[in-house]
Amino acid sequence: MRTPATPRWTDHQVDQVIGRLLQIGVSIAAIVTLWGGVLFLMHHGRAAADYRVFAGTSAGLRSISAILHGVAAGQSAAIVQLGLLLLILTPTARVALTLGAFLIQRDRLYVVLTTIVLAVLLYGLFGVRG
């Protein structure tokens, strides 16, 4: 007795899903960043800019948990950071989705290669900081 074959995605279906993922991810990131930027300008728009001194991102906006806490508190800078984080995570989600497609297609070579790429991306995003 044969078991039903696992449905496989065609290359066209994979391309369509990945394209939609990228469109949605970039759109959401842009909306969140714009929303945070508008809020930031509403609260700090009249402050004089000091271009002589570069001040990097505060420590409160350098971790995902800190960004999420800042968003929950309504901090505009944290909302902008969340939008940028979503923008960075969009291509990472694309690689993860592609890995899933290769698993469904049972393409072992591309599963291995995509797993390596995803591991490198995740290490770069969440790895140990020195």
Care to describe what's here?
With 130 residues, the chain is mostly helical. It has one domain (16-42, 58-126). It has four helices and no strands. The protein has helices at residues 11-44, 64-72, 76-105, 108-126. The model has no long low-confidence stretch (mean pLDDT 86).
Secondary structure blueprint with pairings:
Elements: H1 11-44, H2 64-72, H3 76-105, H4 108-126
Helix pairs in contact: 1-3, 2-3, 3-4
Query: What structural class do helix, strand and pairing data support?
Result: mainly alpha
Query: What Rg, in angstroms, do the CA atoms define?
Result: 20 Å
Distance between the termini: 57 Å
- How confident is the prediction overall: mean pLDDT? 86
> What overall geometry do the principal axes of the alpha carbons give?
elongated
β-strand number: 0
Helix content: over 70%
Q: Report the uncertain regions.
A: none
Largest sheet: none
**Series of secondary-structure elements, N-terminal to C-terminal:** HHHH
Strand content: under 5%
Number of helices: 4
Give the total of domains.
1
- Characterize the quaternary organization of these chains: single chain
